[in-house]
């Protein structure tokens, strides 16, 4: 591990902002943990259906505030895309080549996921598994892909949106919600916010890349976004949960609401305030190696984390049937009590282990088959010292 950390350090460009990579890693891991904590698969009458502990335990709503971190990912994505496009223009690289490189890493692992799950779905349907179960599992795996489609579209539009002030898409979100909720307008208007809502943190990231955002601005984003979110939840009827809750009349995330966007602004402010502490923490080779390794497989982790949870859940269900055991708490029992929460936390290491297996099997699609940190032959003096 020490050798790997040294190789990661040696392969890192001198000017790389490691805090950006740390924020991206935190955002991805936040989404993963959030899904594992608030998503349940319940075995019921021969089928498997989705459920959420937030239906039964609304006091755990703050979990969604901690682990719904997509705004931070769009913030970092906007900054990286704006910087990368500027660098490509400086070296006269064609826009198409820059975009192909950016999108290739997104969609190569998606192709692998779709191929595997198409085969799995056909196999389990042929074996007699009810369609409802296959639909539940497929929806759980494929629903995160909307995020990649939006991110890819914004990346492609970087030359057009990199200089858009974040207040413009925020104004669009505000007016859409006024029409949708205040004037009882058609529900489809909310889907305009899928682009406008995530454009707000993306444009913040682009602004950060262009001229920087100081701590004073970050503090204003944090306090202003948090205050606006509290007011919207308390007095405008927006849900407190920042994730979708099955059966709830309104979701803050699907499509994004004004409350989700203001909450994302607060998260972006907090992320910007963390930059200097993260830079200091990542001066050590071990911490930076961990962050770099997560980033090398970030899309693989994001795409396969639900598959890992499903694999453990289905294995537990089959084992329970063979042993004559009922639904296992925290795995495929109803998430209706504190016991389920404690049991689910105990299952998280197995979810993580299954995810590591998935990453080991499919990370090459994200990395394009390249070995990012090739082993180097020790020099003669080091060989003598070891002897």
Biggest sheet overview: 2 strands, antiparallel
The low-pLDDT segments are 376-387
> What structural class should be given to the helix and strand makeup?
mainly alpha
Provide a count of the helices.
18
How many domains in all?
1
What is the topology, as strand order, of the major beta sheet? 1-2
Helix-strand pattern, N to C?
Answer: HHEEHHHHHHHHHHHHHHHH
Measured between the Cα atoms of the first and last residue, the distance is 20 Å
The residue fraction in helices comes out at over 70%
Supply Rg. Answer: 22 Å
Percentage of β-strand residues: under 5%
What is the overall silhouette?
globular
Q: How many E strands?
A: 2
Q: What's the rounded overall pLDDT mean?
A: 88
